[in-house]
Design a protein that fits this description.
The complex is a heterodimer of chains A (about 750) and B (about 200).
Chain A lengths: L18 H6 L14 E7 L5 E7 L1 H5 L3 E6 L28 E2 L5 E7 L2 H8 L3 E6 L6 H4 L7 E8 L10 E9 L11 E6 L5 E5 L4 H11 L7 E4 L16 H12 L3 E4 L15 E9 L5 E13 L11 H4 L5 E11 L12 H19 L3 H7 L17 H12 L11 E3 L2 E13 L6 E7 L4 E4 L9 H13 L6 E4 L16 H27 L11 E4 L2 E4 L6 E3 H7 L4 E7 L13 E13 L5 E11 L6 H20 L5 E2 L4 E2 L18 E5 L23 H13 L19
Parallel strand pairs in A: 1-12, 10-11, 14-15, 19-20, 26-29
Antiparallel strand pairs in A: 1-5, 2-4, 2-6, 3-5, 7-15, 8-13, 9-10, 9-12, 13-14, 16-17, 17-25, 18-19, 18-24, 21-22, 22-23, 25-26, 27-28
Helix pairs in contact in A: 8-15, 11-12, 14-15
Chain B lengths: L7 H16 L3 H8 L11 E8 L2 E8 L4 H9 L17 E4 L2 E4 L12 E3 L12 H8 L9 H13 L6 H7 L10 H14 L4
Parallel strand pairs in B: 1-5
Antiparallel strand pairs in B: 1-2, 3-4, 3-5
Helix pairs in contact in B: 1-2, 4-7, 5-7
């Protein structure tokens, strides 16, 4: 669970806390837990996009070796939480194996359970499913133009509507993004073990053990404390582990029915339709400025797809309301229900899509104005959030522009597109910015000070890769002023004090605040204990004492000193245990707008004959308060940039609209960035504490690392070629080159 | 009826295993086993397998349809090798078979009789990490850690093959290992560092 640092000592202080577990293969991911008498469950999925299942014939499958059961709506035991009459729980989303309705191609219609993975796999094709097919609609481009098909999802106005049209200089443009899929390397899995009728232990790939625990307690109508969710390691998730998808209850249903532990595994093709995705989008931006570049109006409309059974929305148009100073802003957002599975939050949800359009549009406007795009942004820079009129707690974007400009060599950029050429490649420079909310939620952390002076911290969070343990140990070490290797952070167990789901770039701020608070409380407690227990401290006040390097001492008389371990021994305590909650947002925080910001800079080459787009150099800058662990924060920024490379140049899920089937549901056909796609990337942080957000001054970087990046690439490609691609991903064909 | 679609990798895999199964069946069942489109339940065959994993000899009864990766993960309990796609497209399952890097999901366990397998668990000694593992830590060449064992096994082979001389060469020879967290730059840094150090791998 947590790392034994001494196993392969010595480590540098900023090394990833669980690195040794990961490089040796000792880290246990969900599907890897050895459970006796385990059965294997695999989904049989629909081969129509819409309709009903008229019959499931499982007789052949049940004759196959090792097959224990085939569970479908025909024989699935009643799940208490799926009945709103009982307990009043309003269920959202799809109910696993609940009815005969098919809502999207690839929807699970049965679960085959067998005594081995091989037997379960072989039996999948022996389950015969008959359907009554209905007409489906999966085509976003076709249906987004049908007004009646759209659902209003919010609009906003300040000042004059469509004011951009009155500006001396304005542009209007439409931007499109395809469905993108999280595609973490670890495929989702759940192992369910029932101990009696109302006690459930689950190994699950989740970004929130507490959230999964809550969902399962409600689903099976059992006390929350009777559900234990264990998630020691998460092999990436990027948002798709924020809710419990169909396979999670499926494992529990099967384990209960069969009275033996069941592991349900998703296959890689199923990872493309059963655990969410970033919705497809269409956006239109109108933006106008006066001759000096001052924005006069921004209008931003967006449509994104959802499923028919849930209305998934995200903040696509929100960035236009507040990122730049502008008196007249209007936005309009609609969703388009289609016969597809429900999308979900994917890294930088909403803002990624919105900033792509906004940051592209500003770039387009800069050419109209004949103004440097960085200068144009600086012209409209503001320290007051124009949407809620609150001052920003900290906003160091100007530093980001300056640092990035120098590092990328912005001075070499040609203001006129298509002018730079090197060895047959057209060269262009581009930039784009990003923003994401940075709050502080509630988290509880338990601290255990052991008799040897070491500290263990516990919270029911999971870590999908950013390095939560690493940064929490650093926060604790700094607060306690003691060596990192004497502190452990344990996570991944819902039995620990409640912590937040890992998402929305909030972990470091939220959990870090709780860690800081619990350590401060310990220091206070140790000082009081010293005064009570140690004769030489008796006359001293708490204010005269400090704790550092595992000793309590008087700041007035350095000779008055006692070791923490010794103090514990003296007071007859085997250990000290404290649990503290960080609380949520404070009244002080509500007086400010609090965000993280990023600016990305790209140098790109476009081959003059083939149109191949090659990234040559990337500089990414982040303004996210104090950086707790430079090592892992840098890695996170690199990761966001790589995600942005995928968004700009490679990723696109395609659907056969005749059948409704996903055409490229594999890692060989859905193209992720690979080693050769990555140019030299430099990461730079402002690294100044935010004085308002929390006691540690830190904000998140998970989302801002990706938000705005795709625009930096399209802007650079325009600078190189004079051709504007407004439909991601950029391909040679879209740049007007023939397919070679 | 069709179950969820499998890409060709797994389909080919099953076809092959069905064919192997046929060798052990009576003639009437053989006919059925080959009639792939009219699937019927077929008896499961297990075969004896002699294999050396991380220097240790094993004699196992193995389901003939089982991949080498599943043998390691589900039967031997060595879960360090990862399953990222099960169709040879991501590299998370890379192990060394007689010194050569192989996707563990793309080779049947029973096809590895007397082969010497090295997995991530066999790289370090209890006292010391392998230089590539050390470099992965010092360059933070991982985030979630799921592709890491495959990247490391591939990196070891890449260096041993003599394909780690420049950044570009390393990238080309590591192209089969996907890292969705995007730690590529640090991975290449780590490999280059080991190569330049001249440490024996």
């Amino acid at each position: 669970m947590s790392t034994n640092h001494n196993f392969f000592a010595p480590f540098a202080d900023d090394d990833r806390a669980d690195a040794a577990e990961k490089v040796t293969g000792r880290a246990k991911f969900t599907a890897e837990h050895a459970v006796p008498n385990l059965a294997y469950g695999l989904f049989v999925c629909s081969t129509i996009a819409k309709g009903t299942v008229s019959k499931i014939d499982e007789s052949d499958a049940l004759k196959a070796p090792g097959v224990l059961d085939v569970i479908s709506f025909q024989n699935c035991p009643a799940v208490p939480g799926y009945n709103p009459a009982k307990g009043g729980f309003e269920w959202w989303g799809l109910k696993t194996l609940y009815d005969n309705k098919v809502r999207f191609y690839g929807q699970p219609v049965a679960l085959v359970v067998a005594d081995s993975f091989e037997n379960a796999t072989a039996a999948l094709k022996l389950v015969h499913v008959s359907y009554e097919k209905e007409a489906h609609e999966t085509d976003f481009e076709k249906n987004r133009k049908i007004e009646a098909a759209l659902k209003p999802a919010g609009n906003y106005k300040r000042g004059i509507e469509k004011a951009y049209k009155t500006a001396p200089v304005f542009i209007e443009a439409e931007y499109k993004t395809p469905i993108e899929v999280h595609s973490p390397m670890e495929m989702h899995a759940t192992i369910a073990i029932w101990e009696g009728d109302d006690k459930l232990t689950v190994y699950d790939k989740t970004q929130g053990p507490k959230s999964t625990q809550n969902t399962l307690a409600k689903t099976f109508d059992i006390p929350q404390k009777n559900v234990r969710v264990i998630t020691e390691y998460v092999g990436g998730a990027f948002g798709n582990g924020l809710r419990s998808w169909l396979h999670v209850p499926a494992a529990c249903i099967a384990a209960k029915k069969l009275k033996r532990p069941v592991k349900v595994l998703l296959t890689r093709p199923q990872m493309f339709s059963l655990v969410g995705y970033r919705p497809q989008s269409w956006q239109k931006i109108g933006i106008g400025a006066d001759k000096t570049g001052k924005f006069i109006g921004i209008s931003h409309s967006a449509i994104s797809n959802s499923s028919r059974y849930e209305d998934f929305r995200e903040g696509i148009v929100d960035v236009s309301k507040f990122l730049y100073a502008c008196d007249n802003v209007d936005t309009d957002y609609k969703t388009l229900p289609l016969d597809l599975s429900t999308p979900t939050w994917m890294r930088g949800p909403g803002e990624v899509t919105g900033c792509y359009a906004l940051e592209s549009a500003i770039d387009e406007l800069s050419y109209q104005l004949k103004m440097d795009p960085i200068e144009l942004r600086i012209k409209n820079f503001t320290t007051i959030n124009p949407e809620n009129k609150l001052p920003w707690s900290a906003k160091n974007l100007l530093d980001c522009y300056e640092a990035g400009k120098t590092k990328i060599g912005w001075k070499n950029r040609s203001a006129i597109p298509g002018k730079l050429k090197e060895n047959g490649w057209l060269i262009g420079y581009g930039m784009g910015g990003g923003v994401f909310g940075a709050g502080k939620g509630a988290a509880s952390v338990r601290l255990i000070l052991k008799e040897d002076g070491t500290i263990v911290l516990q919270s029911a969070v999971s870590d999908m890769g950013p390095g939560t343990s690493t940064s929490m140990v650093k926060v604790a070490a700094e607060t306690m002023q003691m060596p990192i290797h004497k502190i452990k952070f344990s996570l991944g167990d819902s039995d620990y004090p409640p912590g937040p789901s890992q998402g929305g770039s909030g972990t470091t701020s939220t959990l870090g605040s709780a860690v800081n608070l619990v350590c401060e409380t310990l220091k206070q407690g140790l000082k009081e204990l010293a005064i009570q227990q140690v004769p030489t401290f008796k006359t001293l006040a708490v204010a005269d004492l400090d704790v550092k390097n595992e000793v309590v001492f008087s700041t007035k008389d350095p000779g008055t000193i006692i070791g923490v371990a010794e103090l514990l021994k003296l007071s007859g305590k085997p250990l000290i245990e404290i649990t503290k909650d960080s609380g949520g947002a404070t009244p002080e925080m509500r007086k400010y707008a609090i965000n993280s910001f990023s600016v990305h800079f790209v140098k790109v080459g476009v081959h003059a004959k083939t149109g191949e787009v090659k990234l040559l150099q990337i500089v990414t800058t982040g303004d996210a308060g104090k950086i707790i662990s430079e090592n892992t924060a840098r890695s996170q920024m690199l990761g966001g940039v790589v995600g942005g490379i995928g968004m700009a140049l490679k990723e696109e899920l395609t659907i056969n609209h005749t059948t409704g089937e996903i055409e490229n549901a594999s890692l060989g056909t859905y193209h992720l960035p690979l080693h050769t796609d990555i140019p030299p990337i430099e990461v730079w942080f402002v690294n100044k504490p935010d004085p308002i957000v929390n006691a540690i001054g830190a904000k998140g970087v998970g989302e801002i690392s990706l938000i705005g990046f795709a625009a930096a690439v399209t802007n650079a490609v325009y600078n190189a070629t004079g051709k504007r691609v407004r439909d991601l991903p950029i391909t040679a064909e879209k740049l007007g080159f023939k397919k070679v | 009826m069709e179950a969820c679609k499998y890409a060709d990798g797994r389909r080919g895999f099953l076809k092959k295993s069905t064919a192997i199964a046929a060798l052990f069946l009576t003639p009437s069942i053989v006919t059925k086993a080959f009639a792939y489109d009219k699937l019927v339940p077929t008896p499961v065959e297990k075969e004896k397998l002699q294999i050396v994993i991380n220097g240790k000899s094993y004699e196992l009864m193995v389901d003939i349809r089982m991949s080498l990766l599943d043998l390691l993960r589900e039967q031997v309990g060595l879960t360090g090798s990862k399953k990222g796609c099960d169709m040879g497209q991501c590299g998370a399952c890379i192990v060394l078979v007689n010194g050569k890097r192989v996707n563990g999901c793309m080779t049947l366990a029973v096809d590895n009789g007397n082969n010497k397998i090295t997995t991530i668990e066999g790289l370090a000694t209890p006292e010391k990490l392998h230089p590539v593992q050390e470099a992965f830590i010092s360059h933070d060449a991982m985030q979630c850690g799921y592709c890491t064992p495959g990247q490391i096994m591939s990196a070891v082979a890449c260096i041993r093959e003599g394909h780690a001389n420049t950044r570009e060469e390393i990238k080309a020879y590591m192209e089969g290992n996907i890292c969705r967290c995007g730690s590529y730059q640090n991975i290449v840094d780590a490999i280059l560092d080991v190569k330049k150090s001249g440490k024996p791998v």
